[in-house]
Specification:
The protein is of the alpha+beta class. The protein has helices at residues 6-19, 38-63, 128-139; strands spanning 70-73, 78-79, 91-92, 99-102, 113-114, 121-123, 146-148, 154-156. It is built from three helices and eight strands.
C-alpha cells in the first residue's frame, strides 16, 4: 500500500515505529528541489508521495493512533510563483504550504491564503515558526522557554512564533 519506492518504505517504517511507541519520527523525501524541469520531476514524485502519505494517514486512523499523533508535511522553503527559464521553481520565503493532520487537529480546513499569484500572504499569514510552535505544544514543549548558553546568556527554544490555534478549534 505504501509503494515499493524509498519514500513509501520509509513511511511504512515510520508507521511501525509509531506503533512501537516512538514519540517523534521524521521522514525525509529528497529530490523536490526542482530548480529545473519541475513539472516532469513532479509527475513521477507526486503519485509516490500521495500513495505513501495517504496510506500512513489511513493506517494511523484505523489503529487509533491518529488521535494522538501529529503529522506535519512541509518543506524547508516555499517556491516562486513564476517558473524560471529552465522550467523550474526556485526557493521563495514569502509563501509556503504545510499539511497537518491528527493530534487533535480539526480536519478539513485551510488556515491563511496567498494572493492570486501565490506571491504574498493575503489573509491570516503564518510562519514556519508558527508551525514549529504548534508541533512543540503538541510534544509538551513550552516554545517560550529559554536555556542559558555556556556563557549564561538566555537562548530561546523558538525565538518567535505562536501555535496555530485555528487548527484545533
Amino acid at each position: 500500500r505504501y509503494g515499493r519506492h524509498d519514500f513509501g518504505q520509509h513511511m511504512l517504517v515510520a508507521r511501525q515505529m509509531l506503533e512501537a511507541g516512538v514519540r517523534f519520527v521524521k521522514v525525509t523525501s529528497y529530490g523536490w528541489d526542482t530548480h529545473g524541469d519541475n513539472f516532469n520531476a513532479h509527475a513521477t514524485m507526486v503519485p509516490k508521495f500521495d500513495q505513501a502519505f495517504s496510506a500512513m494517514l489511513e493506517d494511523l486512523e484505523a489503529s487509533g493512533l491518529l488521535k494522538t499523533t501529529l503529522v506535519i508535511c512541509l518543506s524547508e522553503f516555499g517556491r516562486t510563483p513564476r517558473v524560471n527559464s529552465t522550467g523550474g521553481r526556485d526557493h521563495y520565503p514569502n509563501v509556503f504550504s504545510a499539511a497537518v493532520a491528527g493530534g487533535g487537529i480539526k480536519g478539513g480546513r485551510v488556515v491563511g491564503a496567498s494572493d492570486k499569484q501565490g506571491a504574498f500572504p493575503a489573509e491570516n499569514p503564518k510562519t514556519a515558526q508558527d508551525v514549529l510552535a504548534t508541533m512543540y505544544r503538541h510534544l509538551g514543549i513550552d516554545p517560550t522557554k529559554t536555556y542559558d548558553d555556556h556563557q549564561g546568556r538566555p537562548v530561546s527554544i523558538l525565538p518567535s512564533g505562536n501555535p496555530v490555534d485555528e487548527l484545533f478549534a
